[in-house]
């Protein structure tokens, strides 16, 4: 009980924007350091240690950046959905800040998943794009990110924008299982899951390790960028408050 | 390029696009942060304070 109270207290403390600024300021250099070391190791393993695939040849090296980007595109939206719950249910002071800050980072990684997938598809499938269930549902995810970013910019009152965006974010969550299971539910050109699947990964360890290290490093990069964007959003709201105070005289 | 086989151009393009997008994202976040800190400092220099901010002791 005591430990629970202690944990609850520390989470509540972190919910305070000023304390979040202090905490994230201390953690960010370590996060960046770990991300850079991880990316350097991951890229070395991806290009110089992982062997060419017996079917894809050297083109498999695109997978080391495409797969983590695709995972993070969904991870980002999942974080936004949790934040949306925080906005609507618990009125958490940092929830909307987090959702709004993560959106452009998530959109960038979704864009990378689409572009790197296309660049892999041309030599492997013979086409940059097909209206396949997996590709189309990821494109819908990208459009949802853009729509939410536009919504936050269009509604001037941050409180109203937060509530509308939170509702829309939660409606959009239905797309996540569609993306994940599209390769099982429909007959698609995109290959089925080969890492997170019942029965274990089908990828050889020589390629799985570089992929996992790239995934961890890109996740750290995603978290570092999101934390920085959250700090900016807190400052933006402080600037707005002061500008309103200055205008009111 | 030759070491990357017949499709080396596609591999390099994928990594080049990724680097460009991620560097642009980092630059946008860093410059946005700096601009916001300048605006905040400017407002505080003009004596505008948040209600929750502590006054001078």
Characterization of this structure:
The complex is a heterodimer of chains A (249) and B (57). Chain A has 249 residues and is an all-alpha fold. Chain A has one domain (30-248): Four Helix Bundle (Hemerythrin (Met), subunit A), CATH 1.20.120. Chain A has 8 helices and no strands. In chain A, helix 5 packs antiparallel against helix 6 (158-172). The longest helix of chain A is centred in the C-terminal third of the chain and has 44 residues, at 205-248. Mean pLDDT of chain A is 90; it is low at 1-6. Chain B has a domain at 20-47. Helix content of chain B is 67%, strand content 0%. Chain B is rod-shaped, with a radius of gyration of 23 Å. The N and C termini of chain B lie far apart (65 Å). The mean pLDDT of chain B is 86. At the A-B interface, helix 3, helix 4 and helix 8 of A face helix 1 of B.
List keywords for this structure.
heterodimer; A: 249 residues; mainly alpha; Four Helix Bundle (Hemerythrin (Met), subunit A); 8 helices; B: 57 residues
Task: Outline the fold blueprint.
The complex is a heterodimer of chains A (249) and B (57).
Chain A: H1 2-15, H2 17-49, H3 63-90, H4 95-125, H5 133-154, H6 158-172, H7 175-185, H8 205-248
Helix pairs in contact in A: 2-8, 3-4, 3-5, 3-6, 3-8, 4-5, 4-8, 5-6, 5-7
Chain B: H1 8-45
Radius of gyration of chain A: 20 Å
In percent, how much strand structure appears in the residues of chain B? under 5%
Overall 3D form of chain B: rod-shaped
Q: Count the helices of chain A. How many? A: 8
CATH topology of chain A: Four Helix Bundle (Hemerythrin (Met), subunit A)
Q: Please report the two chains with the greatest interface, counting residues with C-beta closer than 8 angstroms to the partner's C-beta.
A: A-B, 35 and 33 residues
Q: Average pLDDT of chain B, to the nearest integer? A: 86
Beta-strand content bin of chain A: under 5%
Helix segment count of chain B? Answer: 1
Number of strands of chain A: 0
Question: Which class of secondary structure composition applies to the elements of chain A?
Answer: mainly alpha
Structural class of chain B: mainly alpha
Radius of gyration of chain B: 23 Å
Distance between the termini of chain B: 65 Å
